[in-house]
Amino acid sequence: MALVGMAVAGIAVGFFKRAFFGVDPFQCLCNGINRVIPIGFGTLYMIINAVLLVIDLFLDRHYIGISTFINLFLVGYAAEFSENLLARLLGDQGIPGRILLLVIGIVVSCIAAAFYYTADLGVSTYDAIPLHIADRKPKLFGRVLPFRVIRIISDLICVAVGFALGFMPGIGTVITALFMGPLITFFKKKLSDPLLGKAGAEG
């Protein structure tokens, strides 16, 4: 479940990029950095995640596991492969085709995240940060902030930094920044948690 989730997460990035409506917030950050450091995206993605891994290790090692390292070495290159493959197979799409690619990218990336969250073998270095913060139960106006709100805030920060570095976000970026946290929670509750529970019962 963890391996499939990570691989599919990378493939989803290719759909985002071919939709040309903007990428998800973390990819927005990565693409902004890529404008400053123009090297292969897969390699840059690995470097950025290595830096975040160091931060995660200082915060809390609870969410670091085999999935973290699968993400570190796999997702960036899977995204690069997916984008190139879709470009060859589909070429440039009209507006309806681009909208379909965007919807597929959003749904698939949220399902992928739900899968590797549920697998509980570690999460991506970026995903670990809002989870660390949520575990500390921060409060705003006397109320504990839930994970979905913290995820929205962290996503918006990524979008702002990516934009400041010269990468233009799109409607897809805004949609994922506002709805990715709630959608991950939904798919985790409705799909991946029951699936793992069923697999555990059968085992």
Task: Looking at this protein, list some descriptive labels.
single chain; 203 residues; mainly alpha
> What about the largest sheet?
2 strands, antiparallel
Query: How many domains, in number, for the residues?
Result: 1
Note the total helix count.
8
How many β-strands, per DSSP? 2
Provide the spatial order of strands within the biggest beta sheet.
1-2
Q: What is the beta-strand fraction?
A: under 5%
Roughly how much helix do the residues carry, as a percent range?
A: over 70%
Q: Averaging pLDDT over every residue, what do you get?
A: 83
Radius of gyration, taken over Cα atoms and rounded to an integer in Å:
16 Å
Which helices and strands, and how do they pair?
Elements: H1 2-19, H2 25-36, H3 41-59, H4 66-90, H5 95-119, H6 125-135, E1 139-140, E2 143-144, H7 147-164, H8 171-202
Task: Write up what this structure looks like.
- The longest helix is centred in the C-terminal third of the chain and has 32 residues, at 171-202.
- Helix 6 (125-135) crosses helix 7 (147-164) and helix 7 (147-164) crosses helix 8 (171-202).
- A two-stranded antiparallel sheet has the order 1-2.
- With 203 residues, it is mainly alpha-helical.
- It has one domain (2-197).
- The radius of gyration is 16 Å and the shape is globular.
- It has helices at 2-19, 25-36, 41-59, 66-90, 95-119, 125-135, 147-164, 171-202; strands at residues 139-140, 143-144.
- Strand 1 and strand 2 form a beta hairpin.
The gist of it:
With 203 residues, the chain is an all-alpha fold.
